[in-house]
Amino acid sequence: MQPDLPNPTILVTIPMTPNQRRELESQASGHAFVYTSREALQAADVAAADIILGNVPPALLTGAQRLRWIQLNSAGSNDYAKPGILPEGTQLTNASGSYGLAISEHMLGFCLMLIKKLHLYRDNQSRALWHDEGPVTSIASSTTLVIGLGDIGSQFASRMQALGSTVLGIRRMPAAGKPDFVASVHGLDELDELLPQADFVALTLPETPQTIHLINRERLALMKPGTVLVNVGRGNAIETEALCDALAAGHLGGAGLDVTDPEPLPADHRLWSLPNVLITPHVSGFYHLQATLDSIVALATRNLGHFMRGEQLENVVDRSTGYRMTQVAAAQSASQPDAKSSSPQQPDAASGASS
Q: Are the C-beta atoms of residues 342 and 320 closer than 8 Å to each other?
């Protein structure tokens, strides 16, 4: 179906080089492009846009009555998929698939730093203290449980498997298939059986009603002593006070957190002072790795071409679940406009956490 927009205004908040802008504009020659940053963005820019490439504050979208499609620069899309945020019929696409490299390496860094006690040695270095911190453990011959086998979770799983860990995976739809680097794939209903087996537990989940406090006090207790817990999805997937108690008691070997609840973490929160915690301020993704930004720009450019030619967009989000759809499900949804925003569709097995 060709878009009925003879001269769309295209608002771009994704940073691009001059060459990238030229490539983008070649997909919609003669149309108006408005480039801005999220910081400089005005409500009038959003209200005048037919197409938006990049995240904008969701509150501004209620006035975007011309909007036909928004391409997010984030993998997470739940804030945009909520009822009443986007005008009826607006297509929503995310950047799932662009963050796996950066975030999975960040997760691996958490794991290695904690099991080799490098965080303790860094603390000692800041005090000019020459001190042996004692025994360490290894990824080799360990078991890793990855909760959320999307792009990020899968890339982390492959790296852990390459270092000798047996990887167990949990995904919303286990029947979607098992990657070669994963020993077995399970549904969320098997979580309690799998937690006691894992030396590493990694969360790469988007926020949904089912994921809030998924790791609570009871499930922390199910983890074996010394387990390393990593979270790069959403902070509220873990019950924070219960986590603090488990860490303070020495039940967990450590936690690597790129997301927290609350976020930002208040300066007086006791999580900061626990020695077996690594905290980064939600920076594992974003544009810190140039390859991430290049991937997002390439996706936005391809999708603009798809839109202008009336083709199926990549990374369409099912607004009833917040997950990326498969291409088949997206095409079926597009052919039934009345069901576009309300009927659940099959999520893509590769969709996962946000950034």
A: yes
Q: Out of 159, 186, 234, 324, which one is annotated catalytic?
A: 234
Domain range summary for the chain, segments of one domain joined by +: 9-98+288-339, 100-279
Pick the CATH number of 9-98+288-339 from 3.30.365.10, 3.40.50.720, 3.40.50.1010, 3.40.50.280: 3.40.50.720
Q: What's the pLDDT tens digit per position in 23-45?
A: 999 999 999 999 999 899 999 99
Q: Is 282 a catalytic site residue? A: yes
**Active-site residue (options: 21, 263, 270, 306):** 263
Q: Which CATH class is domain 100-279?
A: alpha beta
Query: Is 263 tagged catalytic?
Result: yes
Mark whether 269 is an active-site residue: no
All residues at 6 or more sequence positions from 135 whose CB lies less than 8 Å from its CB, including other chains: none
Cα separation, 42 vs 116, in Å, equals 48
Above 70 in pLDDT, residue 231?
Answer: yes
Task: Provide the terminal-to-terminal Cα distance of the chain, rounded to the nearest Å.
Answer: 31
Summarised one tens digit per residue, pLDDT across range 109-164 is 999 999 999 999 999 999 999 999 999 999 999 999 999 999 999 999 999 999 99
Catalytic residue (choose from 171, 186, 282, 319): 282
